[in-house]
């Protein structure tokens, strides 16, 4: 990992005519004033129609924040999500539509996340029974976190529905407590909902992964892939700093020595690394906690690990520390969490 | 806001001129009091009341459609304001003792204002009865504007839940059956995708109207979320509710909707399910109904998969 280039919150890489346009369209169709919607985003409506401006993650988050508050409706995230995938983004949308199977569509989504899901990174894990799709913030989401996760889950649900020709039996694990407007989740996602989850993820039985309706075109698929790769390589980097850090932590969690070692891997001094993370609105401990929570969840789910095995995998020296860690981040003791996740 | 000033410009202008005229008249007849003898409590009391009445008049004009009732209420409030305004003016201006005009200007508009307000409120009451009759099937027993749905002219899930929480114990106390019907448009997201959200919202409004036409006078229709509607059926057995559910399903299938743009036919299909309440809480009942709906929605897919 010698390329020390990452997308940060101020990198202009999101095509405003892609996902942001979906949100602007939704808000305008609900009678929201375009000036109020775009206030503080540095984006102009005329610009969007005449050019194809690139915006930063920070600008997009500001737009989402505005739209969320102006729409002031419980279903905004779901309506937004329904438009996101496969979307109208040209080659990358075609790539999803020409996927041979649901699994391939999801893998392409993960590979081209900077183009297809710039704010919320999908992370795929598979075992003998199921596919697990975790959702991570690529940038500091602030108050938009739940909105983005809800929208992304709806988007993937709609994508698979389109690839398969019918709805798939996804299970949804959501971090928030059951909201008063739970009906929105029933209608837009389905009845398999689990609230108060340690991390946000979706789960699908494996037998549905190999299905698709009709026949994909191999030629069109190849063309779309090449065009998408060109678009991806035109970006300064394929993913955000925290996405990269997450990948690194997943790989090295068992032998993690400390911040200096991680920073060195990212070709930075510890001080620079800290500063870069701070500029992204986070810090190393928060990122480490996030990775550990997801890895613990994943080990319980896919490997059926015992508490001791998970603790030692995550490099915890004693059970009390591990217990305290889980309690602080998920509100559950190791045994509770195992039971909650169904082992 | 600008439309309010344009629509009511003559009324507002007249009130402004009148208030101004009163002030000029007092100034021409009397002398300004020195600040030392101003009575601040009187100024706050009378002036504050005058201002509040002016705010009421503004909210009234902004919130209500123009018409007879609005005019009556406005002129009533205008008289009250004028009376309070003249009353607060004499805190600043001392008038000669011999003058009786000021008593008239302060006291006469007050009873007139109250009479107009009373008349206005009476007609407002009649108007409310007429509106309530139009709200049949959309409202029961209580109104809460914060629980209005933003798209359709119906109550939302929160309103429905509160209605159900009231209706369930009442039904149990009277040993009456209570049933629910849930209706979900099949593949509604396709309409949003192909025609846009504006068209999707329009279809939801029309579907809501269509469902209302099929209900009895004491049923309540709400929009649960998205394209899912729910009907509360008091004093209804499950068999009757099932019949109604089927009727609703057929009625949606036969609704010959045309798109707003090119006017082509939008083919709608709905899945409906019905349930009778057992000894359970509102939330549990809603969850149970939702699961029945999920099974009903999967059934055609299962048939497809088996075929």
TrEMBL record, chain B:
Q: Which reactions does this protein catalyse?
A: 2 GTP = 3',3'-c-di-GMP + 2 diphosphate
Q: Cross-referenced NCBIfam families, in alphabetical order?
A: GGDEF
Tell me which positions the record assigns to the signal sequence. none
PANTHER family in alphabetical order: DIGUANYLATE CYCLASE DGCM-RELATED (PTHR45138:SF9), REGULATORY COMPONENTS OF SENSORY TRANSDUCTION SYSTEM (PTHR45138)
Write down the top EC class of this protein: transferase
Q: Name one Pfam family in it.
A: GGDEF
Record's keyword terms, sorted: Membrane, Transmembrane, Transmembrane helix
What does the record give as EC number?
A: 2.7.7.65
Where do the GGDEF domain residues begin and end? 176-307
Protein name as it appears in the record: diguanylate cyclase
Which branch of life, at top level?
A: Bacteria
| TM regions (residue ranges) | 12-29, 35-57, 69-88, 108-125
């Amino acid at each position: 990992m010698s390329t020390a280039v990452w997308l940060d919150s101020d990198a202009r890489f999101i095509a405003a005519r892609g996902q942001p346009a979906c949100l602007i369209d939704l808000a305008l169709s609900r009678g929201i004033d375009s000036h109020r919607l775009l206030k503080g985003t540095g984006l102009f409506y005329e610009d969007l129609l005449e050019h194809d401006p690139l915006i930063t993650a920070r600008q997009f988050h500001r737009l989402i924040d505005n739209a969320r508050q102006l729409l002031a409706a419980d279903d905004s995230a779901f309506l937004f999500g329904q438009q996101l995938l496969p979307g109208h983004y040209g080659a990358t949308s075609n790539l999803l539509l020409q996927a041979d199977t649901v699994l391939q569509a999801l893998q392409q989504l993960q590979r081209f996340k900077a183009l297809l899901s710039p704010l919320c990174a999908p992370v795929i894990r598979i075992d003998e029974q199921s596919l697990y799709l975790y959702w991570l913030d690529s940038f500091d989401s602030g108050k938009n976190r739940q909105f983005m996760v809800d929208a992304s889950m709806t988007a993937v649900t709609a994508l698979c529905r389109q690839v398969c020709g019918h709805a798939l039996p996804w299970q949804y694990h959501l971090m928030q407590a059951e909201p008063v407007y739970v009906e929105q989740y029933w209608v837009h996602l389905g009845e398999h909902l689990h609230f108060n989850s340690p991390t946000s993820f979706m789960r699908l039985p494996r037998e549905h992964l190999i299905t698709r309706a009709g026949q994909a075109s191999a030629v069109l698929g190849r063309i779309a892939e090449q065009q998408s790769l060109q678009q991806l390589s035109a970006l300064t980097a394929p993913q955000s700093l925290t996405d990269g850090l997450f990948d690194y932590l997943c790989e090295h969690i068992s032998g993690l020595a400390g911040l200096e070692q991680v920073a060195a891997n990212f070709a930075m001094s510890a001080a620079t690394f800290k500063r870069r993370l701070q500029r992204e609105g986070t810090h190393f401990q928060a990122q480490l906690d996030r990775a550990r929570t997801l890895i613990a969840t994943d080990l319980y789910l896919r490997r059926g690990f015992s508490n001791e095995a998970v603790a030692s995998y995550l490099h915890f020296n004693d059970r009390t520390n591990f217990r305290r860690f889980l309690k602080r981040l998920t509100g559950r003791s190791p045994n509770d969490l195992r039971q909650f996740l169904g082992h | 806001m600008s439309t309010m000033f344009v629509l009511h410009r003559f009324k507002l202008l007249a009130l402004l001129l009148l208030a101004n005229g009163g002030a000029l008249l007092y100034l021409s007849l009397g002398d300004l009091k020195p600040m030392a003898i101003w009575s601040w409590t009187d100024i706050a009391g009378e002036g504050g009341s005058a201002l509040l009445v002016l705010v009421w008049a503004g909210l009234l004009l902004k919130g209500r459609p123009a018409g007879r009732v609005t005019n009556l209420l406005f002129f009533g409030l205008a008289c009250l304001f004028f009376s309070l305004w003249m009353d607060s003016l004499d805190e600043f201006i001392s008038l000669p003792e011999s003058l009786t005009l000021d008593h008239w200007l302060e006291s006469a508009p007050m009873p007139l204002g109250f009479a107009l307000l009373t008349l206005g409120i009476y007609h407002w009451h009649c108007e409310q009865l007429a509106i309530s009759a139009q709200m049949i099937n959309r409202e029961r027993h209580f109104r809460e504007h914060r629980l209005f749905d933003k798209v359709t002219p119906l109550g939302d899930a929160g309103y429905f839940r509160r209605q159900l929480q009231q209706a369930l114990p009442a039904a149990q106390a009277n040993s009456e059956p209570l049933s629910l019907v849930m209706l979900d448009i099949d593949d509604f997201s396709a309409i949003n995708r192909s025609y846009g959200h504006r068209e999707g919202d329009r279809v939801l409004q029309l579907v809501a109207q269509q469902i209302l036409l099929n209900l009895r006078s004491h049923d309540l229709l709400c929009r649960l979320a998205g394209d899912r509607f729910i009907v509360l059926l008091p004093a209804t057995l499950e068999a009757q509710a099932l019949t109604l559910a089927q009727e609703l399903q057929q009625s949606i299938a036969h609704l010959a909707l045309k798109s707003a743009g090119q006017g082509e036919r939008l083919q709608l299909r709905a899945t409906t399910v019905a349930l009778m309440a057992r000894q359970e809480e509102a939330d549990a009942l809603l969850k149970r109904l939702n699961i029945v709906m999920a099974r009903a929605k999967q059934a055609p897919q299962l048939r497809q998969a088996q075929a």
